[in-house]
Design goal:
alpha+beta, elongated, six-stranded mixed sheet
């Protein structure tokens, strides 16, 4: 390869040979130019074979292709990483608990009418927004809904902005370890609303505990809660201050006193769902008989904003 654009091959300048009592050295034989067959098209350097030139061109071309492929792969990796990070951020945003840290409702009371449990703040003035929530106590998606939006609903109820009518379903009885967990848990919720519903926040705490991740049984699992364990959940929700009505609620849970009422409500709730959305499923939230898209993380915020100020 030429250096600085040219060959540095000029001969060295020497002094003339002079005789000083000695014979002069014979003159150096002049360099012979390359044979015609060894000459390149330009200059007198040895000619490179066609195979050598082709190999060099191929090598340069392959080097260029390799660099392009590496660049494309690097860009693709960066794009994939960005997509993964964005998906992670969006997923966290869409599944994060709303109003995290608020906890269960504190000022709510509960009452039962025809199997429907109505929960609201203990204020005389009706809340501007009333929602119908359909849940099966064994339904894992119901648990997920409560864990994500339960605290937001609790605060809205405490502030008098929201009333919730709970419709309890039992279509997952066959997926429980015992043959009737959904019925027994729904009956226990009714027992607490009937006997202890006037204690501020108690029904809401008991309801939230039954849907808590470490309490709610697994659909299709090999264990669920006995009636005695349901009573223990009530004791945990009530704390160390049982009231005279606690004994009645406990007896109601242990004997399954609300089994018939639960069956009646399941039939009625199933009919409402079939008319509203064409099928029986849970969880379902209805606003004025119309289904609410709870996949939208802002669904409750939007509904509360659209309701009149109490």
């Amino acid at each position: 390869m030429a250096t600085n654009g040219r060959n540095n091959s000029a001969g060295r300048s020497g002094k003339d040979n002079k005789t000083s009592g000695r014979l002069a050295k014979p003159a150096t034989k002049p360099r012979q130019p390359p044979a015609p067959q060894d000459r390149t098209a330009v200059g007198n350097g040895p000619a490179k074979s066609a195979a050598q030139n082709a190999a060099r061109r191929e090598s340069g071309s392959r080097s260029g292709i390799d660099k392009t492929q590496v660049y494309i792969m690097a860009v693709a990796v960066v794009v994939i990483i960005a997509v993964i990070i964005l998906s992670f951020i969006l997923n966290n945003k869409n599944t994060a608990a709303q109003n995290e840290g608020y906890g269960s409702a504190r000022a709510t009371v509960a009452m039962v009418a025809d199997g429907v449990i109505t929960v609201s703040a203990a204020a005389a003035k009706p809340a501007p927004l009333a929602l119908d929530v359909f849940e099966d106590p064994l339904c894992p998606f119901c648990g997920a809904l409560e864990r994500q939006f339960g605290q937001q609903m609790a605060q809205a109820m405490d502030e008098g902005k929201l009333t919730i009518r709970y419709h309890l379903l039992t279509f997952l009885d066959g997926k429980a370890a015992s043959p009737d967990y959904s019925t027994r848990a729904a009956g226990a919720l009714m027992c607490v609303a009937q006997n202890l519903g006037s204690e501020p926040g108690l029904y809401s705490r008991f309801h939230d505990q039954l849907f808590a991740k470490d309490v709610q049984p697994v659909e299709g699992g090999d264990a669920d809660l006995t009636n005695q364990q349901l009573v223990e959940q009530l004791t945990a929700a009530q704390g160390s201050t049982p009231t005279p009505a606690t004994a009645a609620a406990t007896e109601c849970i242990l004997t399954g006193a609300n089994a018939a009422l639960v069956a009646t409500e399941n039939t009625a709730a199933s009919a409402i769902l079939t008319a509203a959305i064409g099928q029986v499923s849970s969880p379902v939230v209805l606003n004025g008989g119309v289904g609410v898209n709870t996949d939208d993380v802002n669904w409750l915020t939007t509904l509360l904003a659209g309701a009149a100020t109490p």
